[in-house]
TrEMBL record:
This is Reverse transcriptase RNase H-like domain-containing protein. Pfam families: RT_RNaseH. GO terms for molecular function: endonuclease activity; hydrolase activity; nucleic acid binding; RNA-directed DNA polymerase activity. Keywords: Endonuclease, Hydrolase, Nuclease, Nucleotidyltransferase, RNA-directed DNA polymerase, Transferase. It comes from Aristolochia fimbriata (White veined hardy Dutchman's pipe vine). CDD domains: RNase_HI_RT_Ty3. The keyword Kinase does not apply. It comes from the Eukaryota.
């Protein structure tokens, strides 16, 4: 049985004569098993850096000190406010293991669902510097005294310990769970949706993370949902994750890196465009060569993340602005909103790569595609707000004005009918959000001139049996009508008729008839 309290989970294992098998999740310093050598190197060098310099404070008394740390960059008023809050709730924090009463197993209990078909691994014992051994024994004795761990005889699984420096100069003892993670199937307990969680936590200032065994986060999430059930989504939000971004060294690490970026994609404008140099490395049978273009793209992404555009929270009952842009190989979108000062503020970035037949779409079809992609991803925003669509062309008119809707156009039209979207022409660049969006989605001057057949020479022309089109258009006092008839090479007839709501002369009705006929022929791929 596992105990859990204050983001800690422990498992049974032997003492210092053999490797330990327990987990101590980290509060401030994260250890990722895939980068164990980097963690050890950092430990040997003497510690890890923090974002802010820390200031030591005492929440206890002279006889019972309770040291902790605050950011040294806090103002005097902020420090007084935080100290007052911490002293008021000092009883919920612990400074030693004996103060942890444990968590009722009925609330949450972490179990190791080890696959019996997987070969059990006993890692070879790691050697430590002699001066570190007393510190390790001292830490283990603390855990044994509080019944967090116990010695086992004849263990079938053994994992080495990992040492990490604390900010107070002491060490934290953790475990290298690489082999155990491979033997445990993933816990598919559903975590919160990232996009909704980011919006829900707007204004919150504290995040808590839990690391270690790969399913520990789901156990912690279950516990938090049970503990904070009555105040969850009202005063408390719980989410678990962390992020490490080293330089990819192989295709697996590149996929992991792109997965990390996908997690924060809403904060990065034109993410797919920025990752284009990585696309060729993902192709099958392509050697992994991290060249200069990959280095430049990798460093540009890191530089962008150090000073990203500031996204704001959604304002209820205020219309949204949806900017869309289409490139040759990828598309992008930006959701924005005007604040109280009528200044445009960015809310959400979207982008994706065109795949398969999508690359051969015409520019207007790619614009329709990015609109559909955006509303599918942002439907929880668009269903609750009216939306102004801003782009160089009007995809709504293109879809809704087709005489015959079939295939993907029919699906797109049905999907768009759920939303209140109004097209606004992009006549001038007035908002900063639009200016930044266009800067990240440059359009080549030659791209719009791409012909239907880009090859300079045509080697074969096949003459197909032709269709015949007949049209007519009578006009009367209160309206007009249009009739179009298609005759196939096999003499099959396809008649169509339309009513025009506007008043037209006889000649104008004839013009409308032939235009509708040509439009239907294009949709039916007769031209």
């Amino acid at each position: 049985m596992a105990r859990q309290r204050h983001s800690l989970v422990f498992f049974s294992g032997p003492r210092t004569t053999t490797p330990l098998l327990y987990l101590a999740s980290l509060w401030r310093i994260h250890v990722v098993t895939e980068h164990l050598s980097e963690a050890l190197a950092t430990f040997e060098e003497g510690g890890q850096s923090t974002v802010d310099e820390l200031k030591k404070v005492d929440l206890g008394t002279k006889d019972d000190p309770r040291p902790t740390f605050l950011s040294a960059s806090l103002s005097t008023d902020e420090e007084v406010e935080f100290m007052s809050l911490l002293r008021e709730y000092h009883d919920i924090f612990t400074w030693n293991y004996t103060e942890m009463p444990g968590l009722d197993p009925r609330v949450a209990m972490h179990k190791l669902d080890v696959d019996p078909s997987v070969r059990r691994v006993k890692q070879s014992q790691r050697r430590f510097r002699p001066e570190l051994v007393p510190e390790i024994e001292k830490e283990v004795d603390k855990l044994i005294a509080t019944n967090f761990i116990r010695e086992v005889k004849y263990p079938s699984w053994l994992a080495n310990i990992v040492l990490v420096n604390k900010k107070n100069g002491q060490i934290r003892v953790c475990v290298y769970f690489c082999d155990l993670n491979k033997a445990c199937p993933k816990d598919d307990f559903s975590l919160s949706i990232t996009e909704l969680m980011v919006d829900a936590t707007t204004g919150h200032e504290v995040l808590s993370f839990m690391d270690g065994h790969k399913n520990a986060s789901t156990t912690y999430h279950r516990a938090m949902q049970n503990i904070f059930d009555d105040v969850l989504h009202k005063r408390v939000e719980c989410y678990i994750d962390d992020l490490v971004m080293p330089k990819p060294r192989n295709i697996s690490e590149l996929k992991r890196f792109q997965g990390h970026l996908a997690y924060i994609r809403r904060f990065i404008s034109n993410l797919v465009g920025r990752c284009q140099p990585f696309s060729r490395l993902m192709k099958k049978d392509t050697p992994f060569e991290w060249d200069e273009s990959c280095w430049i793209a990798f460093n540009n992404i890191k530089a962008y993340l150090t000073k990203p555009l500031v996204l704001v929270a959604l304002i209820v009952d205020r219309p949204l602005l949806l900017y869309i842009a289409a490139q040759e190989k990828y598309v992008g979108a930006l959701l924005a909103q005007c604040d109280e000062d009528n200044k445009e503020r960015s809310l959400y970035f979207l982008s994706r790569t065109l795949v398969g037949a999508e690359i051969n779409y015409t520019p207007i079809e790619k614009t329709c595609l990015v609109l559909v992609f955006a509303i599918q991803k942002l439907q929880h925003y668009l269903l609750a707000h009216s939306t102004n669509l801003i782009s160089r062309t009007d995809p709504l008119k293109y879809i809704m004005s087709r005489p015959i809707l079939s295939g993907r156009l029919a699906k797109w039209a049905l999907l768009l009918s759920e939303f209140e979207i109004k097209f606004v022409p992009q006549r001038a660049i007035k908002g900063q959000a639009l200016a930044n969006f266009l800067a990240d989605h440059p359009v080549s001057a030659e791209w719009e001139l791409t012909e239907e057949f880009p090859d300079e020479e045509i080697f074969l022309v096949e003459v197909l049996p032709h269709w015949e089109m007949y049209f007519d258009g009578p006009a009367w006092r209160n309206g007009a009508g249009v009739g179009v008839l298609f005759e196939s090479p096999r003499k099959d007839l396809l008649p169509y008729s339309f009513i025009l709501t506007q008043n037209c002369s006889n000649n104008e009705v004839e013009y409308q008839a032939i235009l509708l006929g040509f439009g239907m022929a294009v949709v039916m791929k007769l031209l």
